[in-house]
Amino acid sequence: MDSILLAHGSGGKLQSDLLEKVILKHIKNPIINLLEDSAYLSVNKSKIAFTTDSYVVNPLFFPGGNIGKLAVCGTVNDLLCIGAKPLYLSLGLIIEEGFDYERFEKIIASIASEAKNAGVKIVCGDTKVVEHGKGDGIYINTAGIGEIKHYFSPQKIETGDFIIVTGNIGDHGIALLSERQKLKFKTPIISDVANLTGISDILFKNSGIHCMRDPTRGGIGGILKEIALKSSIEIEINEKSIPINPGVSSICEILGIDPLYLANEGKFIIFSKEEKIVSTLKHTKLGKNAAVIGRVIKKDQKGKVILLTKVGGKRIIDIPRGELLPRIC
Question: Does pTM top 0.85 for this prediction?
Answer without folding.
Answer: yes
